[in-house]
Structure formats: structure tokens, C-alpha cells
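Researcher: For the annotation table, I need C-alpha cells for LPS export ABC transporter periplasmic protein LptC. Please keep the output clean. Sequence:
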Amino acid sequence: MVFLGACEEDKNSKKFIAYNGPLEEAENIEVLFSELGFLKVRVRTAKQIKLPSEDKVFPKKVFVDFYGPAGDVITTLESDSGRYEYRTGLYKVKGNVKVVTQKKERLFSDELTWNPQTQKVFTDKKVTIENQQSGERMNGLGLDANQDFSQYSIRKPTGFFNAPAGITPN
């Protein structure tokens, strides 16, 4: 007695292919952050994509308003795109980032990161800060700031800028 066996691939079986696309997409998004019932930050964008990692991508322009204690907008931010990283809890905006403060200062950079927990903004990229009243311009690499940009420091200032009276070079 001889037994012969053969295996044949079932042509009707379907292979499982894992889905790697977005979990959800939403349009005209507005996210509000408050503290003790007071509005602190408002983020707006035309599109949000939520990924399987729980990260959120904002592929279109991002607009952020930072509010003061009286409930008025004291600083605005605009960028070409942004991203929320779930693992770290950080928001990152990229491309033509422009910040305008209540003190009539404008900040320009390619990228800024915001930490809602510490209420700090930072970057290691090139920054330019212009004072719209005096015309003074400061350049540098890296920046650390409060989220409302009421206080900031440039990590590595470059170029020339006016120093207060009484300060002389070494």
C-alpha cells in the first residue's frame, strides 16, 4: 500500500495585511487647555490625523492663542504644520513658525516644541526675535521660554544687538 499526499495552496484563502493607516481623521479642530477653570491655550487647525501610536499629526496650518490672567490673548503662534507626540506629551510645530507677543515682539523659527505640563516652549533651531517698536533684531541658536513668551532666553546668541547703557564689551 502506498500513500501519496500533496499540499496545494488554497487559492481562495486571503492573507492578513495589517492596517497601518490613520485611526481617525478630523477637520476644523479646536483644542482648549484650561487651568483652574481659566482658558490658557487655544489650538486650531484645519485637519488632524490620529495614528495607531496615538500621535496626532496636524498637516495644515496650526494657530495657537495663549491667554493671560484677564482672559485676553497675549501671544499668538502660527506654523505650517504640527504634531502631538503621545509618548512624551509634547506638541511640536514646524515650518515658518511665527510668534507675536503682547510686547510687540515677533519670533521666527523653523520649529518650536511646547510642553503643556511644564508650560514651557523650546527649540534647538535657529531663532530670530524682532522688536517691532525699536526695530532691534536678535538672532541665535536655541530658545527656552514660558508658554506665553513673557520671558525667554536665547541659548546661543549670534550677531549684534544693542546692550543696555553702562554695559561695555570686554
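Researcher: And a one-line annotation?
Model: The longest strand covers residues 38-50.
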